[in-house]
Design brief:
With 171 residues, the protein is of the alpha+beta class. It has a domain at 58-168. The protein has helices at residues 41-72, 147-168; strands at residues 14-16, 19-22, 27-28, 30-32, 37-39, 80-85, 92-97, 105-110, 119-124, 129-132. The strands form three sheets. It has a five-stranded antiparallel β-sheet. Strand 7 (92-97) and strand 8 form a beta hairpin. It is elongated. The mean pLDDT is 89. The structure holds zinc ion. Zinc ion (ZN) is lined by residues 6, 8-9, 11, 22, 24-25.
């Protein structure tokens, strides 16, 4: 059996109960395949999670870049669409805004994931309300097969917010 060097302390690992073990760190060692380093099971799991998150963020960025031109062709006059990443490390979405000053609200089109199609949310910064588009009955968030269907829904929801704003406005 080879004696893998511990990825944490760089000393040659040993064997304990038939498994690679670092006597310095007091951890079992497992091979982290992408880097070839021997790390603890906990470190290996967290590295896998980090890699999985990075993969999903990159996939969402690609979807946004690929589909943004199709959304642009659908926008009403004066409306805009742009890539949006809420916070560093978050998934990308396509943000749709009505013409400046009409309403301080944005519709977001979230790219498909392994478990869902496109999803749509609206964030109204005036009322502080954010909500997803629901399927009929409201049991779960609506999922759209195409970016066109998602954009249509996002525009509809944002127009609803504008309508609500107009009806609340004092005369
Ligand atoms: Zn070690």
């Amino acid at each position: 059996m080879t004696r893998p060097a511990c990825g944490t302390c760089a000393t040659p690992g040993g064997v304990r109960d038939g498994r690679p073990w670092c006597d310095t760190c007091r951890i079992w060692l497992v091979l982290h395949e992408p880097t070839g380093q021997w790390v603890s099971y906990a470190d290996n799991a967290s590295r896998d999670r980090a890699a999985e998150t990075a993969r999903r963020v990159a996939a969402s960025a690609r979807q946004v870049t690929d589909n943004l031109p199709r959304v642009h062709t659908m926008l009403p006059e004066g409306w805009t669409a742009r890539p949006h990443q809420g916070i560093d490390g978050a998934l990308y979405a396509i943000a749709i805004d009505a013409p400046g000053g009409v309403i301080d609200a944005t519709a977001y089109l979230h790219p498909p994931t392994d478990t869902s199609g496109w999803q749509v949310t609206v964030h109204n910064r005036v009322t502080g309300v954010g909500f997803p588009s629901y399927t009929d009955g409201g049991a779960r968030a609506a999922s759209f097969d195409t970016v066109e269907a998602a954009a249509t829904d996002g525009i509809r929801l944002l127009r609803g917010e504008i309508h609500d704003l107009a009806s609340r406005r004092p005369r």
